Structure formats: structure tokens, C-alpha cells
């Protein structure tokens, strides 16, 4: 298993754990979330093996194995956006739209200062320290439907982005911090996070206990992610993507059909989304 | 700062949301379709990444922030609906619905914002204004806006560029220049100037200084506002209203058509423009070129293929070009109206394909524009059609010729 480098491989300067480059020579050392979680791979594998052993004793190892394989093959990171947000995300960079968009330097600078001035606060600070603002949240899904409580449009992200920038936490960060009573500066319990390549181990370690002999393949999607529109009851594995991404990172989308729109405004946004997804060559599933 | 105030927030009107800073970290809020507000802090970073305009508000209460989201959402959504109407990559259904929403949401307050932006920023090259006009049929506010945009389009780039130069280099105040420029643009200074230019309203230009010089919001960001406006209007007058153009502004008895002809002549001749000399060169050196392969024409509307044919055969340089154009155009219109083309009467049988329907639609729009609009509107329409379909023919002379015979025919 790889060990987190605490010195730059290029110039041997000490590395700060929350930075993605060497402070001495600027050498890129990788996203801090991945560097941090890499050290937990053994602990996660041990959790997974224990969960598999338990399921063998309960006579449902086959189904757990099937679930694990399904997650390894089909799972994607999904973000959820509301229609006007997704329509803007897809179209905002076209020159037709950006030509009428006036950003002002002062506002951009102020927004950047928000990032620079960030202190360790709240759940983000507890889990990520200074790089919390760099984290974009997604959820792990095997049917491309995400947390609809946060927006009716589910957008799947490219696997390559997740490999290069993504890590996972076994549940919502807020409830994770509260459940384990983690204070800023505390050690995060090992084996509860995963690099993207190990997501199936994390999913099985978390879910295996709920799989019984009567469980079928049909239940897998809802076992992995359950969202009925109420955020309080959402159950999911959280994906953390380090850094900004654009629509180029979108590989597929599950979007309500235009006829399901509840207002004319939403109908227009959904129509625009469907048209844009087609022209961008992004797979679109109507839900 | 008072207790309970949000020290700073970025309002993102186009997505009906705002990102703001609290002791708990970065938070976000969005307006739901029901009108209520819901927390969306989980998407705060994504909102910052979103390619959308962000507007800073400082020291506001939660209620004030919500009001700000409501206001800027209405403004930005109207603007985006109008832009969507010009988006040729979207389906007609989506574009038409977008324009209907714009028409229904129309109020003077938010329309002035949209107008200031649309007529204040250079028309993007991918804007399908002609399509927007077609789809805005029966939607008077939208149609009027697009017709004004079409008429003023040729002035926007240079006028907005000049204002920006003045703000950045000559009349900079304490405020950041991009803040100042956005304030000037959003108050409608560029839009007003280009509209007056399109209308040939010289006295109106003179009143522009008075109209905006007392604007308190602008005076805050630009203390030398009066000087800036005076110089700006002087520059516009000097650039567009010298020689014959001055007569055009001051002699109200001169017809619109004469104004337009004078303006073009004056612009070309007195400016010693490259276009003018290029035209002379082309006329003197006209030669018949080989026609491009038919496939190259296949995707073009019939009328544009006909024009291109004339150009490639040297037609546009011949003395009888106008007469030929008029005759063929009339036949094309006739053919379009009866739903079939008289192949022999149009330039060449091989250039007729099943694109007739779109040609007919274009002809209908042209006819409507002539009957409802000014010459400047028609010319803007023609220019847009030529730029989009046959950019290689986009010269002042060709645009003028086409406008002439279209105007004569339908007028």
C-alpha cells in the first residue's frame, strides 16, 4: 500500500497535508483528500473482509459478492442540481450566453478571498481543514439517480475525474462527524473512507450487514442510495471531488421528462437541458 | 455590522440562488418554484463554479438577501429567456417557450435591464437573431426588442468598446473600472446610444448627457460622469455623424431611405474606409470564377445559394445585377408562395432542393419586417441572414443591394 509522502519527491521540502503541490518547488503531489485516504486502504480492506465473513455465516455471501461486483462495475458519482442550475451549467460557457455575462473583478476577488480566508469551521473544517472549500459533494449510485432531495436532475461524473480527484465517505459528512463525535483535530476513524478504486469495498463494508438471503439484485440500487425527497432520511455514500469541474466532466444525466414539469419555467429549463445534452453528446435518461 | 447581518453574499440570479458566508462556513440558499427558499449549502462550491454572473451584496439580513435573489433572478431569467430565443442550437419548441415566458414576465423594471444588456453587449457571432424574430411572432415585447437589436447591432461593438476604453483609461475613479463599466452599461447608456444611432436621432444623442448625468448610482462609481458622457457623446457624433450624416441628423424632412444612403456613402467615402477601396478594387477586377461543387450549396437556404451563384459568376459586379436580382427574387417569392419552384425561372434548376419551406419562412419574415419596421431593421435582418448563411458575401455593397430590392419589392 502506498504511504503518504511527507516530503516532496522532487526537492525534499516538507509537504503540507492539505496542499496539492510542494511549497518549495511547486511540484504537483496530488489532491490532499486522496493522499490522506490512501493510508487507510488496509483498514478498509480489513473491514470489508470482516463483513464478508459475517455474511458467509449468515448464508448470504453470494449476494454480498454480487453486490460488491455490481458496485465495482456500475457505480458512478452523481451530483444533483435543480433545472435552472443545470441549464446554466450546460449553457453558461457558450459565447451566446457568456457574451452577456458581466463578472466584475471586485466580486471575483471577494469570492477568492472567501476561499483564502477560510478557517476550520463546521463539518467541512473538521473533515478537510483548509481545503474544505475545494470539495464538491456527490453521491455514489448504481442507477445514475442521485439525491433528488437536492435537485431533480442527477448528473453522473466521468470515472476519470473520480479516479484523479475523488474519495468517498461512508455516509453524509454531517451525520458522520456527529455519529462519531469527531472534533476538529481528532483522528478520523480508519476504514470509513475510500479512494475511488476501492469504492466497492466501502459499499460492501457498509451495506453487507443489511443484505439477507431474500435480497435480490433489484434491491441493490436502493441499498446503496436511498433518497425520497426528504434530506433527513437520505442514506448514501458521499463522494468528495477535489477542485472545480465543468460540464466536460458530465458523462450522463437522469432528468425529468419535460411533460413532468410543474411550471412553465421548469418546462423551459428541462427542454433546454434535453436539447443541450443531445448537442453535447451526453447520455440522457428521462425519469 | 449589525448582529444577524450577512456580511457578504454572491447572488446568482440565473440559477435563483446565493452563496453567503457565515460562522459555520460557506452556505447557500435558493428560491423554489413555489416562491419559498431552501438551503442548498451542499452545492455552494458548485454554485461558485457555475458559469453564471455573480453579484456581490454586503451587510444584508436574510430577508434582504432573499429579496435580492428574487430581484436578480427576475432580471437574469428574463435576459436568459431572450438569449435562449436566439440560441440556434436549441429546438424551436424550447426557444418559443422561452420567449413566451419572457413575454409573460415582462415589466418595465426588468425589461430595462435586459434591454441594457442585449443592446449594450456586442452581438455574439452565434446569435440567431433572425430566428428569434421568427419565433417571436405574436409576442410584441420580444419582437420589438429583437427588431431594435437587429437595427442597432452594427453600432454596439464600437460604441461599447469606446465606453469601456473611457472608463478604464480616461475617467477612472476610485471604484474598480469593471464595476463602473457594468454600472454604466446596466443603466442603459450604450443601449440608448446605439438605439438613437439606429434611429438616426441626432438631437436625441445630445440629450443623452442630460439624461444620465444626474444618475446618483452612476455618480457614486464615476464622479466625473458628466465629463465622461460629454466626451462619449462627442466621440459618437464625430464618428457617425459627420459630413452627410450631420445633415441626416438635423434635416428632419429627409426620408429614412435617404438618411441610410447618405450614411453609408458618407461612412465609406469620408472615412476613406478599406471597405470602400476594396469594393472599387473588386469592381475593377471582377472575374468569373468557377462555381463551387453543388454539395457545398446543399445545406444552404435557396435564396442564399442564388446570391452566391450570382457572386461566383460575377453577377454582383455586373451593371444589371440589381435588375436580375429583383426579377429572380420576385420569381423566387412567387415560387415559394405557391409551394413549388418554377425551376427555369430561378437561377439554376440544380440549386433547388427541399429547403423551399425555410426559404418561404424567411421571405415571410422579410415581408413582415418591411411592412412593420424601418429600413434600418430590414437592413439589419438582411445583414444577419447574409452573415449567417453566406458570410463570404457579407460586404456593405451586397447587403445594401439586397436591402434595396427587398424594400422596393415589398414596400
TrEMBL record, chain A:
Q: Which domain of life is it from?
A: Bacteria
Q: Name the chain's protein.
A: Uncharacterized protein
Automatic annotation (TrEMBL), chain B:
The molecule here is called Uncharacterized protein
